[in-house]
Structure formats: C-alpha cells, structure tokens
Amino acid sequence: MLLHELAHARSGDKGNVSDITVIVYETADFPLVRERVTAERVRRHFSALLEGDESDVRRYELPHLGALKFVLEGALDGGVTRSLNLDTHGKCLGSLLLGMDIGDVHAEEQEPESSGTRTSHGIWR
Amino acid sequence: MVTLQASGSERSALRIGSGAGFADDRIEPAVQLVEHGDIQYLVFECLAERSVALAELERRRDPDRGYNPWLADRMAAVLPECARRGIRVITNMGAANPRAAGALVTEFARARELRGLSVAVVTGDDVLDRILERPDLPLLEREGTVGSLGERVVSAHAYLGCEGITHALSAGADVVITGRVADPSLYIAPLVHEFGWDTSNWNLIGKGACVGHLMECGAQVTGGYFADPGHKDVPGLADLGFPIAEVHGDGTFRISKVEGSGGQVTTATCTEQLLYEVHDPSAYPSADVVADFSQVRFDESGHDTVLVRGARGRRRPDDLKVSVGYRDGFTGEGQISYAGPNALPRARLALEILRERIEKQGIDPGATRYELIGVDSVSRGLGLGTGTDDPDRLNEVRVRVAGRTDSADQARRIAHEVSAMWLNGPAGGGGVVCSVTERIAIASVFLPRSDVTSSVTFAEV
Description:
The structure holds two protein chains of two kinds.
Chain A: E1 7-14, E2 17-24, H1 30-36, H2 39-45, E3 56-62, E4 67-73, H3 93-97
Antiparallel strand pairs in A: 1-2, 2-4, 3-4
Chain B: E1 14-20, H1 28-36, E2 41-44, H2 51-61, H3 71-85, E3 88-91, H4 98-111, E4 118-123, H5 128-132, E5 153-158, H6 163-170, E6 175-178, H7 185-195, H8 202-215, E7 243-247, E8 253-257, H9 267-274, E9 284-285, E10 290-292, E11 297-302, E12 305-309, E13 312-314, E14 319-339, H10 343-360, E15 368-373, E16 396-405, H11 408-419, H12 421-424, E17 430-448, E18 455-460
Parallel strand pairs in B: 1-2, 2-3, 3-6, 4-6
Antiparallel strand pairs in B: 1-7, 4-18, 5-14, 7-8, 8-12, 9-10, 10-13, 11-12, 14-16, 14-17, 15-16
C-alpha cells in the first residue's frame, strides 16, 4: 500500500533544508505510519537528493495531531537561490513521499536488510 | 480618522484578516475580508527570504522603487474602504524601500482624499553597513564568514520583531509599512497593542506567534495548497476565502473565513499550516519568541471554524537573524519538447547531443543538469512505477538542461545550445524556451539585538 492511502502531506523549505509534514487521515493509523515511515526509510526514499556529506533526516512525532515531521538537511541542491531543480523549493517532495510503499498494512513488517535489492523503480521491497 | 481603541485597553476579541500570504497573492480576497469579514486589522505578508535582496537591486537601479510591485494595486483595492471602516493595515510590502512605499501610500490617500489617515513607516532592518564592518561574522549553516563573500554582497536585512509596528500603532497609525520583519511579528504587533500584552510573557507571545504562523500564508490554512481530488476535496478553489483570526486576550483564538467564500477551514488544513516550515515544532525561533507548537490542539467549533489552543513560548533569541544577499553567478537554462511515437528515445538523443556540445564549451559538468520533464525532473530519480522506460507510455516529454556558471556568457552558451536544437537536433523538437538569470543567493548571520534599532516615521494625510 502507498502512504498516500493513509496520509496527506505538505512540504516547504528554508535554505537548503526541506521540511515535510505527514498527517494521517485516521488517528488509528498513526502507530502503523510511525512504525513504517522512519527517518531512515525517508532518507532512502530520497537518497537521490541527499547526496552531500551534510545531508541528514530528522523526524519529530506529534501523536495528538496524527503528524510526523521530517526535516531533510541538504536536500534542495543548495536551496532556492542556487538549485538547478525544476522544483527549486522542493514543494513536490511531500507528494513524492506519499508515493512510498509502506508494505502490507495487515502484517507485521520486516525492515528490509541493508543488503536488500532495489526494484527498478527505486522502491525497497 | 478614529482609531479603534485606546492602547492596552481590554477588548473582548480582536479580528485580524490575512490579506496576502506571499508577494504575488490574489487581490480580491482581501477586499472580501474588508467588506464582509468584520475585521479590525488587515495584514499583508508579502516578503519571502530572497525577495528583499532582489528588491534592493531594483532600488539601486531606481531610488523610487524596491518595494512590492503589487503595493499600489492592493492599496487601491482596500484602502478607501479600510479608512471608511477604521480597519488598520499592516504590511511588509515596503521590502527594500519602505520609505518609497510609504510615500506611494500617502500620495494615494491624498488623491482619494482619505483625510486624517496616518501612514507609518518602520525602518532599521537594513543593516548592510553594520555587516560590512564585521567581516569576521560567521555564516550560519555553512562554512565561511561575511568577509569570504567579498565584494559580492548586495544587501543585509535583519528580521525585526514587533516593536516598531507596535510603536506605530500606539501612536495612532492607520497603515504601517515595513521592510524585513519576522513574519509572525506582523500579527503579534496588533495583539500586543490592543491587549497590552507584556512582550516578555513568552507563553502569551508564543500564542501570538501561533496566530501569525497560521495566518501568514493566507489561503494555505483555508484550503489552498491542500486539494488532492478524491482524497482531500476542497470546494470553491477559484474563490478561496482568506483566513480570519479571532483572538482573545488570553491568546486562545479561532481561525475562520468569510461565510460563503471558497475553501475550507478544518483541523486538517490547520495541522498542515501549523507545522509548515517550522522544523522542530517545539522550538520555532523568530524575533519575538521561541515558539513551541508541539502541544497545540485544534477543535472544529463550527462550520469552517477551528479553535486553537496550547501554543507556548520561551525567551526570544538574544540575536536577530540577518539575511545577507550576494551575487552568486548565473544560471543558463533551456527546454525543448518531443511528442508522439518514440518521443522518449528522441528526447534522450537530444540530451546526449546537448551534453556533448556543452561539455565541449568547457562548462563544469558538475554544475549542469540534464533531465526529462515528465520522467525524472521533479522526482529526481524517484521513478514510482510509472513505466517511464516504456517509450510508448509517454506521448510527450520535455528536455531540460540547466547549469550554474560564473559568467553570464557561459550561461548564455547553455541556453544557446538548447535553442540550436531547433534545426540541429532529433526530429520534431518544439516549444523551445531559454533563459539566462543572475543568481542572488542568501546567507544568514546573527547580529546582537543591540546593533539593530528600528525607527518609525509618520505622514499625515
């Protein structure tokens, strides 16, 4: 299942930092989303953007709002004034995060091994 | 003109409208707020981080410019009616030239015979001289100092707090025009003025920052930047209403909009905006307070009305953040489209040709981007199973090349190579668009508050 089925998102920027909020539609889904959408997994999802040594992903949890906040340092190719990206602000990144496959939501999930293989679409299985 | 209320006196609730959330926002929602919003204040937030540096370059070219280009339009749309109703206006549309903006508003008010209108201009955010005296100041979040930017620095503006605006309001200003001010402070100021809030009551100012943060992006809290058909449906997006904050003296408040306007105000729209760009929700620093939004709660207390409680605050930072604008080379860019059967292989062939041509020009390949809009441009290597490798799946695709260069001439060469694909590229390329732009970058530094003083000047119509 894609995260898009369970949550909505909004992204913004400050300098070279992308700031993405993920909010579940139903409070009952929050524990599952918190378990599956880890900072490490978000880092892998956006690995193409997070190439620099300075890059980093932090996560903040707001259970009472059903929200997770991700702060992606060094994700915007230098930020809005320098970036060669078509989407200089990274405004589309929130929606791209909703494209994350969070697996079978009815089963206990195994975190993929670091030696796991990528599918041709860049999604970890 | 009669002002609303004597400074510091208790009032039951204050209604503030958000007239704009960014420089190019729609104009008519502010008119709707003035006519139907029952508001006492109208705030226009129109100054993104980099806008003030670009405005400074404009001011250097023409000393009467350098403020928001929509200022005259927005004032023509709302000011006569605001004056008639006693609604006070606060805006950072002064950008790099608040004085010229103030003169424009004063002239306009005179032409419309808005007698007795008091226009205040807040200055002091321009700290370029101080910054240039301190080449040792370290840049935030990166290597280097102010000195390392050398001759390229064009502007330096501190994020002022609410003091200047509050002072202007207590002196009876009906319109307050500023340059760079911390966005939430545009909303904190009327609350401090009307309720007589103590600006060192950090929890209270934190609540004011929450009002400001929810309001400062306009429609982003009333259903704009939100719709996702079938998942998040929003009615009336062509007629979005902008938000109203109804704030009580204890800092509790409701977000709503004009009845019958487009959009929606729900817990979901408020949650998205509350957390927008704040990084750590428990420590969101700005000039007046370090706000803590981590315990905020929303209750839908009526149709399109959300009650907001639980914001807190901690002592404001000792220093003020300063945005330093500097010249940072050029960007050259070109785009061309391919369509119909086999569009994708033709587009890829175009990219190969362009790469070969541009690398021959000696342009740094590490600072050049070759990509296909519709395939890997916005999603940057994050193909999500859309079958983009199947050439028959894409009926059209757009080639994009962009490069950072030190000189305008090199940037021109990149654009020129894409343009040359008209006659020298694969079959059927069309829709070429090219551009060369000088980049103005922003670095941030901290300055002690004692190095920055805001001042207010008044003009009476």
